[in-house]
Amino acid sequence: MTYSEEDYIKAIYHLSKDLKSFASTSDIAAQLDTKASSVTDMIQKLSDKKVVHYKKYQGVRLTEKGEIYAASIVRKHRLWEYFLVEKLNFSWDEVHDVAEELEHIKSEKLIERLDVFLGFPKMDPHGDPIPDQHGQIPDIKKILLSAMKDEQRGIVIGVKDSSSKFLRYLDKLNIALGTEIKVLEKEAFDNSMAIVIDHKTVHISAITAANIYIKT
């Protein structure tokens, strides 16, 4: 697989998981910031390699072969993110772009030794589960902060939006993995929230609350 093909496979993997259905060409194009015509051409190439299945009017999803390949890419990406944060002291908002390059390394031996070296981590620095060497992903029960009710408490275990801008914003709010949050009040007008972090009241938007995963 070329780097570009791997990027498409990973994008389809994430989109189909999020949507729990086929990924449309427009969704893929938006995810990869490319033209719909380019997506159509790539889908044909990937279909010829038996890694995707295209269904007219529904979109595309990965075959079993494609799922295995995608899980391997995701595994490498998240292991490298963990390595960069834990061993090289990168901050969690710096690692995504670097891991995007490192995930294309082909050596399985290197990745398995990296996993051993890191002590078999289960989650990356953003709280996303790391697939094991067989492509299996641990089931982590979580809800979005936006789904919590008044007076409910929980621990931050991940983020839906792992962009650098959002992560830097969370740093300003002193929100990180492991932060304990209590919901004081959800505003009926716009679903914004008043929450308590370290005995301090913080007001967050509905968009922010919809991008933070909590374990209650």
UniProtKB/TrEMBL annotation:
A GO cellular component entry from the record: cytoplasm
InterPro entries for the chain: DtxR_MntR_Metal-Reg (IPR050536), Fe-transptr_FeoA-like (IPR007167), Fe_dep_repressor (IPR001367), Fe_dep_repressor_sf (IPR036421), FeoA_core_dom (IPR038157), HTH_DTXR (IPR022687), Iron_dep_repressor (IPR022689), Transcriptional_repressor_C (IPR008988)
Compartments (UniProt record): Cytoplasm
Main localization category: cytoplasm
Any GO MF annotation of the entry: DNA-binding transcription factor activity
Stretches assigned to the HTH dtxR-type domain: 1-63
SUPFAM superfamilies: C-terminal domain of transcriptional repressors, Iron-dependent repressor protein, dimerization domain, Winged helix' DNA-binding domain
UniProt keyword terms in alphabetical order: DNA-binding, Iron, Transcription, Transcription regulation
Family note: Belongs to the DtxR/MntR family.
PANTHER family for the chain: IRON (METAL) DEPENDENT REPRESSOR, DTXR FAMILY (PTHR33238), IRON-DEPENDENT TRANSCRIPTIONAL REGULATOR (PTHR33238:SF7)
SUBUNIT field: Homodimer.
Summary of the function given for this chain in its UniProt record: In the presence of manganese, represses expression of mntH and mntS. Up-regulates expression of mntP.
Designated name of the protein: Transcriptional regulator MntR
Source species: Galbibacter marinus
Lineage: Bacteria, Pseudomonadati, Bacteroidota, Flavobacteriia, Flavobacteriales
